[in-house]
Design a protein that fits this description.
Protein name: Protein SDA1
Largest sheet: none
Strand content: under 5%
Subcellular location: Nucleus, Nucleolus
Distance between the termini: 71 Å
Function: Required for 60S pre-ribosomal subunits export to the cytoplasm.
Helix content: 55-70%
Keywords: Nucleus, Protein transport, Ribosome biogenesis, Transport
Radius of gyration: 28 Å
Number of strands: 0
Shape: extended
GO cellular component, one term: nucleolus
């Protein structure tokens, strides 16, 4: 182990790999303590040998998983987490990136799913190494699903599905025989199995809830974003994460809204994601004065006759989503102007305008014109009284909505 530790950078790759495999074998037989070996392997991640790094990565993840299989080994976990924290600050970008990958993988496997791991990954968002920063951002955004692991099995299943589809098409045009009928049934069963295997993508946002100081994290990340020279895709991830932090933790980050406002143009790349972030970053505790400029920008740039109906509908829907989170953000004048699109010929624009009317019928119908207010609603129907609401006010319910419909005997 000392030879590897001191001379790994100049050793023959085959010899180095053989020694590492021997150490892994000894560790599997419990002849070496995990701490010593894992610390050595973390050091070897700096080696310029892709195959070696991949082997070490797989062993580190598997070994930590085995160590924590029966119960959490806090002693080993604490030492390794501290070591990984120092590795993230390492001068070697490869070692830092793999260390981040290991932590993300262990969190995903529910091995290191504690607060400390999450907050170590938080520091990766400030990294000067772009790959480390992107990995950390993807982790918090829930877009770090392991695609490489499933690549082989997915490609095989896709080939089988294509063959099955070809058999079905061939069976429709060719002569029907018993053999072809059996092939057809087999192909159909394969397609049914493939459909059952397809599961919807699930996103786990629990990591965002484990951040110790979300306000400080959002402020630091926004400061980094303002001075960032990274490509637009990385900036977009940072914007998305800040918006999500603000929305989930109900943070106050007033400088973020004017920054977003600059990007809200129909021709902007990924403008729908930016509009989504604008809605995500809105909540009841944000002062309406901070959000109103965003609404006016969207109204001026999107909801205009010079734009296509699709753009107008997107703009109206974005305004509705923002207003649903902060009903005081829009002025009566702007709302009444937008509501006028309810009579337009385009169905998508008309429906978007009507959904905005329906929203304010529930929230504050006094902002609408008298003809748009509809029938007065009873408080019991929506759980709170309809009317103007003060900024920061919370509605305390004196009853459970719908409880009167329950049978008294139950």
């Amino acid at each position: 182990m000392d030879i590897l530790s001191q001379h790994y950078s100049v050793m023959n790759p085959n010899l180095r790999m053989s020694m590492c495999k021997s150490l892994i074998l000894m560790r599997n037989k419990n002849l070496i303590s995990p701490l010593k070996l894992l610390e050595l392997f973390f050091k070897l991640l700096k080696a310029k040998d892709k195959l070696l790094r991949k082997t070490l990565y797989n062993h580190i993840v598997t070994d930590i998983k085995n160590v924590n299989q029966k119960s959490k080994n806090n002693k080993i976990n604490t030492v390794l987490q501290n070591y990984m924290f120092s590795m993230l600050k390492d001068s070697s970008p490869i070692a830092a990136k793999i260390s981040m990958d290991i932590m993300v993988e262990l969190y995903r496997k529910n091995i290191w799913n504690d607060t400390k791991t999450v907050n170590v990954i938080v520091t990766g968002c400030y990294s000067k190494i772009t790959k480390v920063m992107v990995t950390a951002l993807k982790f918090f955004l829930g877009t770090d699903a392991p695609e490489e692991v499933k690549a082989d099995s997915d490609s095989e299943s896709e080939d089988d599905n294509e063959k099955a589809k070809k058999l079905i098409i061939a069976g429709q045009v060719s002569k029907k025989t018993g053999k072809k009928k059996r092939k057809m049934e087999k192909a159909l069963s394969m397609l049914r199995k493939a459909k059952k295997k397809q599961k919807p993508v699930s996103f786990n946002f629990s990591a965002i809830h484990l951040i110790n100081d979300p306000q400080g994290f959002a402020e630091k990340l926004f400061k980094q974003l303002e001075s960032s020279t990274e490509r637009f895709e990385v900036k977009l991830m940072m914007i998305n994460l800040i918006g999500r932090l603000v929305g989930i933790h109900e943070l106050i980050l007033l400088n973020f809204y004017p920054f977003l406002q600059r990007f809200l143009q129909p021709h902007q790349r990924e403008v729908t994601k930016l509009l989504m972030t604008s809605a995500q970053a809105t909540h009841d505790l944000v002062p309406p004065d901070a959000i109103e400029p965003i609404l006016r920008t969207i109204a001026n740039n999107f909801v205009s006759e010079k734009n296509s109906t699709e753009v107008m509908a997107v703009g109206l829907n974005a305004i509705r989503e923002i207003c649903a989170r902060n009903s005081l953000a829009i002025s009566a004048e702007l709302l009444q102007d937008l509501v006028e699109y309810k009579t337009t010929k385009s169905k998508t624009v008309m429906m978007a305008a009507r959904s905005l009317i329906q929203l304010y019928r529930n929230f504050d119908s006094t902002l609408l014109r008298k003809k748009d207010r509809g029938k007065p609603q009873e408080p019991s129907m929506i759980g709170e009284e309809v009317g103007s609401k003060q900024f920061g006010a919370k509605t305390a319910l004196t009853f459970v909505p719908g409880a009167d419909l329950l049978d008294n005997e139950t």
